[in-house]
Every structure is written in C-alpha cells, then in structure tokens.
Amino acid sequence: ETGKFTYDPGFMSTASCRSAITYIDGDAGVLMYRGYPIEQLAKNSNFLEVSYLLMNGELPNQAEFAKFEHEVTHHTMMHEAFRTFLYGFRHDAHPMAMMTGMLGSLAAFYHGDLDLEDPEQRRLAAIRLLAKVPTIAAACYRYSIGWPIRYPRNNLEYVERFLHMMFEVPSEPLVMKPVAARALDLLFILHADHEQNASTSTVRLVGSTGANPYACVAAGIAALWGPAHGGANEAVLEMLKEIGRPENVGSAIEKAKDKNSGFRLMGFGHRVYKNFDPRAKIIREMCHQVLGELGVNDPLLEVAMKLEEAALKDEYFIQRKLYPNVDFYSGIIYKALGIPTEMFTVMFAIARTAGWVSHWLEQQVDPENKIGRPRQIYTGAVSRDYTPIAQR
Ligand code: SDX
C-alpha cells in the first residue's frame, strides 16, 4: 500500500543485494519491471522503451525516448578491428562461445577510456553495450555460416536492424514481415530482466570488484550459456525433436520422473516460480498468433502443448510445483522466425543485456555496494598435521 516493501531482518541477512529494478513473487507468478506488471509492458511497450525503464527507473517521455533511441542507434557499429578478432574463431564455434570472447574483447578495446567514477561515462558504456551486442551477435551468426558481415542500418528500428544484420543477403532485399519484428521485440521485453538470476548475479559479483562493464557482461554471457539457465531454450527444441510425436509424450514424462535417467523436462521448473512463469503464459499465447500470421505449421508446437498438458496433470510435477518457464515455448517462435537453434541463447543474451547493464549501473551508485563474497558451508577435513611423503 505504501509503495514500499519491507523484509524481516533474517531475510536481509541472507539477501545478496538490494535492488529496485525487478520484483518477482514466485508463488503468485508475478513479475514487475520498476513496478510495471510484465503483462502491461508486453502489451503496450517496446524493447528499447523497456530498456530505458530498466536503466533509468522511469518510462521516458517522447523527448527522452527520442534522445535515447538516437544514442543507441549511433553506437551500433563495431570497430573494424573486431572482424580480425571474430575471424580468429573456428567458424563452427558455438555462437555463445564467440559472444563470450567478443564481449571480453570489448573490455580490452574500451577499457582505456572508461572512467567508472564519471556517471556519464558509465551511462555511455551501458548504451554501447545495449547498442553493440546485437551487431556482435549478428556478426557471429554470419561468420558461422560463411556469409559477409552486414553493417547496422541506422534507418531501421532496434529489432528490425538486428533482423536485417542477421538475414539480409546481397542478392535480394530482406522482406521482413511486421509480425516477425513485433514477435522478437516482445520476446526481448520478456527476457530483459529477471531479478537475481544466475547470470545477473554473476554480472553483479564481477561488477562488485570494480571490473569494467564489458567484462561484467562477458561473464554474464558465460553464465547464461548453461543449459540449466539460458541454454534451456536451445535444449527444449532438442528435447521436443527427440520426443518427435505427441504420442511419445507419456514416455518422456516417465523418463523425467526417473532420477536415474538424468533427463529433465527442459523448459520446466524454476528456482523462484512455483506457479506459472507469467512470461511462459504470454509466449504460449504468442505462439499460435505468430505461427498463424507467418503461415508456419510446426508439429513441435503440438508436441509441446501435449507435453505441458500431460505434465501439469502428473502428480510428480504437481507435488514439486513444476510449471513451464520462459524457455518452454520461446524456441518455437525463434524457429518460426528463421533463427537457428544455436542462436536461441544468443537471443536471450541480447535481451538480458538490458537487465545486466541496469543492475551494473544501479550497483555503481549503491552506497552499500561492497565486494561480493558468497558464504559457504565448510564440509572438508578437520585440522590435521602434515606428514612427509615417505610416511604416506
Ligand atoms: C531460466 O533464475 C531465473 O530467473 C532464471 C530465468 C531468467 O529469466 O533468468 O528465469 C531463466 O533459467 C529458466 C530455467 C531454465 N532451465 C530449465 O528449464 C532447465 C530445466 N529445469 C531445471 O533444471 C530446474 O527446474 C531448474 C534448474 C530451473 C531449477 O532447478 P532446482 O532449483 O534444482 O529445482 P528444484 O530444486 O526446485 O527441484 C525440485 C524437484 C527436484 O526433485 P526432488 O529432488 O525434489 O525429487 O523437482 C525436480 C528436481 O529433480 N525437477 C525436475 C525439473 N526441475 C526440477 N524434474 C524434472 N524436470 C524438471 N525440469
């Protein structure tokens, strides 16, 4: 009611940080960016406006948005030296491996002129990351398929510019269906931030040491790559392809319940949500609309719907409060947009860069920001005396 949240001291002693950016209620399935429910932002906003909101705490007015969009648009280019770095990778390296390296190279490139004490320089670094990550992502993809890299076109909006860099071929102009750009923009909004998830916590831990933001985001990308985190959207598609047909869903459910199988339903379960992930609900509805407007009939969508239906009725999943999460349906839309499976987690990284830079900016001005030092429970040997090797 007062617009302020209060926590019992016990909780505060275990919390890793304070933040005003994103609020999640896992039991109620609530997600808010700076107090705005994700459902309202998904319906009314766009990714660049949401990025401004996450970074600055308020929605921009028209003049503020125009300035922000101009700044981001005019920082999308990569220095030509990055081509040499990119071309040093094996062409078939996983795009997330390339992204980790490329973001680290941004740290090397910009480190020299970055004064972290200067708020304007910090803001510029955040703008550069938001602007350049799509350019780098598209360049990694083009390099991996042997196509020439495409320069960002400043007359396009953020998502259209990215799709153009990804798919434009010299022989014919890219015909982009508006539904494709809108669908990707919406997926970017839904993936933009998510409180203290593994990759954002990684960014904050690295940031707490005073490392520059490019190195922080490179660390965040590395953390996001794992199949238990952002890599899950790629793993969901592999899982659905392996299940293959709706009639095979029952055996997949039984396999996921067998601890010895080592098989988990990818895209199911969550550290925080013990109810529906609100993002999964929005993406599931999007699936039908986007595939319908694109005229795509993907049999994997039916497999996913049957798998969800069977899991939600199964005692094992009900007892453990396992619901579809943000990754369960997103891959089906990425696939319909022509984005290859190995680029799914890169999509997640592009969107989450907005959250990562926002948390980094917030941390830099937090008077209580100390170097991170997660606690451990020691389970090793008790104190004992050294014995010479001849006596071992
Ligand atoms: C993201 O943190 C975030 O906010 C992350 C994220 C974001 O936006 O940043 O939301 C993005 O990472 C979403 C999660 C994507 N990952 C997956 O979909 C991978 C599949 N899911 C799981 O591996 C798992 O659910 C996790 C990793 C997401 C959560 O793992 P936990 O915390 O270990 O799950 P848990 O301890 O709450 O599990 C409770 C039980 C366990 O069984 P029991 O030991 O109690 O018998 O449920 C089981 C688990 O084995 N379980 C599953 C399962 N997930 C948990 N069993 C089958 N299939 C699953 N997917």
From TrEMBL:
Pfam families: Citrate_synt. GO terms for cellular component: cytoplasm. Pathway: Carbohydrate metabolism; tricarboxylic acid cycle; isocitrate from oxaloacetate: step 1/2. The active site is at residues 270, 327. Signal peptide: none annotated. GO terms for molecular function: citrate synthase activity. It catalyses: oxaloacetate + acetyl-CoA + H2O = citrate + CoA + H(+). SUPFAM superfamilies: Citrate synthase. GO terms for biological process: tricarboxylic acid cycle. PANTHER family: CITRATE SYNTHASE. This is Citrate synthase. It comes from Arenimonas oryziterrae DSM 21050 = YC6267.
